[in-house]
Design brief:
Largest sheet: 5 strands, parallel
CATH superfamily: Rhodanese-like domain
CATH topology: Oxidized Rhodanese, domain 1
Number of strands: 5
Order of helices and strands: HEHEHEHEHEHH
Strand order of the largest sheet: 1-5-4-2-3
Length: 154
Amino acid sequence: MTAMSATLLSVPTPVPAAAPATDAPSLPPAGVDPTGLSAAVVGGAVVIDLRSAEERGAAGVLPGALAIDLADVAERLDPARPGRLRAAGTGADWVLVSGDGAAAADAARVLRARGLAGVRWLRGGFTALQTVRATAAVSAARHLQREAAAIAAH
């Protein structure tokens, strides 16, 4: 577990009594391959870039993704939290992206254990997206453009 995911674990969020601790057959696969990100986005997934501003500055931004600090992701994605995103809901589909995928995988496991079944992570992270030249896979999705506009309006 990374230091950043340990921070996520320290944020107190009540776990619903019926929250699944592991992936159930009815849940979408927890990991998304870089070549499948475009299909996930077309299917309605909102992509969350967990990398720090420094990491995004050094490696590049992920156009169309929402940049949310790892420490804040539980507050933003949980529909029961006051700081939730407009798109946060029980049926929301999220794909978390970190530099190499490790922090995103840790965060997704924690959030899924808290009952957020639609949280997935990008296998290999931003590095893998660059390798397959798929960093533009997110930017054209209209539902992501609406979410970004709503956030910018605040």
